[in-house]
Amino acid sequence: MSAPLAELTSWRADWRGLKVVVLGLSVTGFSVADTLAELGAEVLVATERADPEYERLVPVIGARLWTGPLDPVPDAVREHAPQVVVASPGFPPHHPVIAWARESGVAVWGDIELAWRVRDKVVRADGRPADWVLITGTNGKTTTTRLAATMLVAGGLRAVPCGNIGTPILDAVRDPAGFDVLVVELSSHQLWYLGLQQDGPDPVSPHASVCLNLADDHLEWHGSFLAYRDAKAVVYAHTRVACVYNKADAATRRMVEEADVVEGCRAIGFDLGVPGPSDLGVVDGILVDRAFLEERRTSALELTTLDELAARGLAAPHIVANALAASALARSLDVAPAAIREALDGFRLDPHRIEVVAVDGGVTWVDDSKATNPHAAASSLAAYPGAVWVVGGLLKGVDIGELVAGRGPTAKAAIVIGVDRAAVVAAFARHAPAVPLFEVDAAQTEDVMADVVELAAEIARDGDVVLLAPAAASFDQFSSYADRGHRFQAAVRARIGRGGREPGGDDDARTDPAGDSAR
Prior knowledge:
This protein has 519 residues and is α/β, with parallel strands linked by helices. Helices cover 35% and strands 18% of the residues. Helix 6 packs across helix 14 and helix 8 crosses helix 10.
């Protein structure tokens, strides 16, 4: 018989016989099942579908697998009589199994809660587990997570990016090499699950935390913007040293002001303006720290310059903001400014993040397929004003009107793709009627970007930018934002390879290859 849940706050606790249902069998679900099986729990994995490799491995690790519809709640789940349900992040609060568990008094965890409880599997030389740094926000999470981890490593710490970024946090916790710091990217889904346990016996208490920004996203999952906001705010709970917030986003400041933190924890601001004491910012083209030095009321520490960032493709305003946030997190762990500069000097953005694909015939082609919501697209458009804007996809219940009103009028033209084209077209009609608008309604995935690129090439002139910043999810026509970006890049390179034709051709040639004319 396992110990009561309140006592299960260590790898060394008695987890044997704990009855657990693990929902989902993706990379996160498998890491949860593998961890619990190693601890001796009785694990049932319930999933609607399973990757063949994971399906093969579940019995090998000592767990059971049930595959089939999860609505209604399967008899196999009820009969297992779980004490805990650990859900993969894709399961929303209203999912039948989650609702049943909560109504039945069964504890509901996410992978982050489990990882915190067993974080002492591998400890440092001083006997303590790794410190945690938590990163969330509507946009910029992955870049900031990678930046922070790179800075920490440059500062001599053993650090790893994990969580929503790709490496499951439970794999990092169980890595026999051990780490000094886990840099944890958290989605709003993971934070919602974490929020269910904030009043527990040993709540997650990070060294430092940040919410980079807040805008409408994932409303279909959370049910409302307020619920989404409240989930994001969980990132600051019980922070010990530094709550980092965006001075340009009042919502993040309010989160810090409302957070229940450890006594002595500081609020550290960042933005692109001149910093005050306890802030990081920019002065005369120099990124500076006025937070983590004794003489912060009269002095600042230089971290790098905008010119240096520009030489490495990191000078877009939202990327500079990410660099400042990551620097604040690193400085909270005593990483020297010289190490931060070294980290930035060698850093490169992940693919499909304002990635310059090619410059041909005077036209610059930019892939920001990762701009999967309006807030991210607004940052891209701020970096490339006057671009030929490729926009659209699956809007996920988000109103794109504010983005079009704010950034649409400055676009040279807009090329609209995706299943939710009608909403985008309507937004332009209301807020930016003077902008030339084109629709691509190609039915086949392989045709979409080829049509987009041909049309964009007809529109663009010498000195123009063609910017893929969809402001929408990709799953209507593509397997992922990466697939969407890859196809855009392939279409650009294919056209260049064919020799194309010089930009700035006859205006009368501007027609949609799919058959719709320009508006």
